[in-house]
Amino acid sequence: MSDPAFHYAPIGLVELENRIIRRCNLQFARMFGGNEDEYRDMPLLRLYPSQAEYERIGARWLEEMRETGHYSDERIMRRRDGDLFWCRARGRSLTPDDPFRHGIWSFSDISEDRPMVELTPRERDVAILSCRGLSAKEIGAQLDLSYRTIEAHRARLLEKFGARKLPELVAKLSGMPL
């Protein structure tokens, strides 16, 4: 073992090349199931709930990485046994000119703080941007949707999460105590 700090870090760590796992640490393997060797050379796609999610998040990830060299979000991921869970992902490209080529990523299981609710990709986008404090008009502009469409998505989110008002929804989505 050449790097005990990487191996025993209390957070899931992976080294990616072109979205292929080259190595991971013990905590990452525990979080997703299995042992470290089982992840070597595994496409990250296998840990996403769907191909569509992999592509959607990858496009957003690439755009932000090109601008800043790093990326962070909270998303649904899939364990090797198929169970879905909320995960916080943070990454930094080691090759800013080609962000996917080589990077280091951390993954944290945040499912205890987040209810597992089935959301469409668009509802997930609206939820994430709402938690960032954007207004319905700002979210609409970012997603190229009308203000009314964003309000309809928010109404469905309120219902799904059993929230009465937007601040209560944001609190539930962000895992804050109510």
TrEMBL record:
Domain of life (superkingdom): Bacteria
SUPFAM superfamilies attached to this UniProt entry: C-terminal effector domain of the bipartite response regulators (SSF46894), PYP-like sensor domain (PAS domain) (SSF55785)
HTH luxR-type domain location: 112-177
Entry keyword set: DNA-binding, Transcription, Transcription regulation
PROSITE patterns, per database record: HTH_LUXR_1 (PS00622), HTH_LUXR_2 (PS50043)
Pfam (any one): GerE
Range of residues in the leader sequence: none
GO molecular function: DNA binding
InterPro entries noted in UniProt: PAS, PAS-like_dom_sf, Sig_transdc_resp-reg_C-effctor, Tscrpt_reg_LuxR_C, WH-like_DNA-bd_sf
GO biological process: one example: regulation of DNA-templated transcription
Gene3D superfamilies with a match to the protein in the record: PAS domain, Winged helix-like DNA-binding domain superfamily/Winged helix DNA-binding domain
The name this protein goes by in its record: Transcriptional regulator, LuxR family
Organism: Cribrihabitans marinus
